[in-house]
Fold:
Amino acid sequence: MAKKRSGVREPDGTSLIEKESTTKEMQPVKAAQYTEGGSARMSLLILVTIFACAASVMYLVYRNFPELSEDERDKIKIPKDMDDAKALGTVLSKYKDTYYTQVLLAYFATYIFLQTFAIPGSIFLSILSGYLYPFPLALFLVCLCSGLGASFCYMLSYLVGRPMVYKYLTEKAHKWSQQVDKHREHLINYIIFLRITPFLPNWFINITSPVINVPLGVFFFGTFLGVAPPSFVAINAGTTLYKLTTAGEAVSWYSLAVLAVLAVVSILPVCFQRKLQEKME
Structure:
């Protein structure tokens, strides 16, 4: 009787024992899919909440700005093109001397906000800094804002971005992880090189770095130093802001050659050390 019961089969030819085994195997898979979906939804909810808080801070900064006319108020917005940057520069330069702290704080907060949430427009703020401030201050300000904003984006990705990276950027993140592992001993040089060159988008570097275990300290200093050469070009163009019609005019063949040289210089120590190690071996 026992043998007959164990061999009982359904009309489709599958035994009850086989069905029970298949059901047990499927349960963990379904549970994993449910957990991943729930994690992605929770991450999205947290991201929206953090964005709302950051937007509230930006609103408070705007509220503490000097009293503006209706026409000036329309020009206070995140620049999308060179015309917007020129209009914003006109308003900020008017109030910069009288309300120096408020204008500087508004610039600082806006730049970091854009970098943190990977919102386009920071290139125009870099150009604008060359118009508003002396070159040394403008360069330090842009490098600091870029380093802090990218680091906040890094921490945001570490907190809530992993499920999204695993879901939408798996293949690209895996390839970059292999490259990072090759340069693990000279990671800061590699980050500087990537910031100078356009091989990887900045938003991709910011989002995936915590997932592939790039240390935050290395990430910050690599970004701070790496954005200096491109920022040098943008800030220098800002001194002639009102002669520009597009952001592309800020980049000349000379500036591209300078960036290429600096990119090579940033990676030279790695090449020299590798050759020295090969000779020693």
